[in-house]
Structures are given as C-alpha cells and as structure tokens.
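Colleagues,

For the teaching module next term, I've prepared a clean inverse folding example: a structure given as tokens, and then the sequence designed for it. I'd like students to try predicting residues themselves before seeing the answer, so please don't circulate the second half yet.
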C-alpha cells in the first residue's frame, strides 16, 4: 500500500498545473483587456485633441467677429451722429426761417 502522499501526488500535481494554466490564461486575458482599454483611451484622447482644436478655431473666429462687430458698431454710431447733426442743423434752420416770417 502507498502512503497517502504518494497516492494523491499525481492528482495534486495535475491540479497545480491546471491552476497554473488557468492563472496564465487569466493573466493573458487581463493583458488583452488592458491593451483594449489603452487603445480606447488613445482614440478618446485623439478625439479630445481634435475637439480642442475645433473649439480653439471657433473661439478665434468668435473673437474676430467680436472685433468686427465693435468696428461696425463704432462706424454706425459715427454715421448716426452725423445724421443727428444734419437733422438738428436742418431743424434749427427751419425754426429760424419760421421765426423771421
């Protein structure tokens, strides 16, 4: 009769090898998952960079439009002021002519 240790030694060794095999497979799967996550993160990073670039371009255009609007507004105020000066001048002359009558 074999001692208990020797009787189950092969079975214990097979269990150890199977356990090691499962661990190796799990480690390989974890590495593959990490690679997938890394690829996704890189893709998201590129998209964020593209979005940042588009946002910066839109902000630049907005600033240019604000400057243009301010220039247009200044010109408009100047033109309105000239119109008021002409209207006021004409009204004053009309009033003076009415008073001479």
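(Answer key — instructors only)
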């Amino acid at each position: 009769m074999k001692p208990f240790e020797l009787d189950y030694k092969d079975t214990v060794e097979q269990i150890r090898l199977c356990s090691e095999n499962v661990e190796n497979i799990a480690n390989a799967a974890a590495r593959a998952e990490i690679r997938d996550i890394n690829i996704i993160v890189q893709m998201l990073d590129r998209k964020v960079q593209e979005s940042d670039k588009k946002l910066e371009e839109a902000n630049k255009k907005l600033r240019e439009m604000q400057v243009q609007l301010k220039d247009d507004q200044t010109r408009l105020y100047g033109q309105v002021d000239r119109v008021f000066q002409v209207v006021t001048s004409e009204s004053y002359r009309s009033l003076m002519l009415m008073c001479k009558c």
